[in-house]
Amino acid sequence: MNSGLCQVLLDNDWWEKIELLQDILLPYCGVLNKLQCDKARLFEVLHAIGYFMQFWKCFPDSDLGDQMISRLEKRWSQWEQPLLLLSFVLHPKYHFAYFNNDLSFTSLGRYLTYYYKAWFKKRPLRLLLEFEDFRQKVEPFNNETFEQFGYDAFKFWGYVEGDYKELAAVALKLFGMCVNAASVERMWSSMGFLHTVRRNRLKVSFQNLIYN
Fold first, then answer.
1. Which domain covers residue 143, as residue numbers?
2. pTM across the whole model
3. Residue 197: what pLDDT?
4. Cβ 126 vs Cβ 166: under 8 Å
5. Within this chain, do residues 58 and 144 fall inside the same structural domain, yes or no?
């Protein structure tokens, strides 16, 4: 073995840096694995951002921590923040528990109204009133009801849609958004095995081969 390589491997300082790198990368790998699954949703992205902010605030190397926080804040400023905030607030498990007073209820109401108009091309009639019931945890927006759905936000909003049509419409839209293209990539990969020159000559339904 090369003597220079041996010297590096026997250097305790090198191994300490490797262990430090491992401590940094493991949380990132865990979050990426979570966000790459088919069921990853917008509120989980906000969870990840909050986790990394806390991670770097408590990091022993304050200079590196400040640099990474600056990068996170720069990335956050480039995203469509209201969507992420609403996806978190409208999750019945979280409500407003993790936000300080800088996030006002009226601001969230404006965000809701904006997206309702943009998505459904009409003015809301009861959206803010429904949102107030949600904020006050009026039944069915209490924890006891939500627990019966196994903390599945999408199923919960589907259940309350009959009585809270406008708020549920926005919530279902938000919780129906996937944050990655993993499922689409898998579909294209499957199509690559079937959509070939020889396969195109057959008359068997291509959709049946993919989905059955």
1. 37-175
2. 0.78
3. 66
4. yes
5. yes
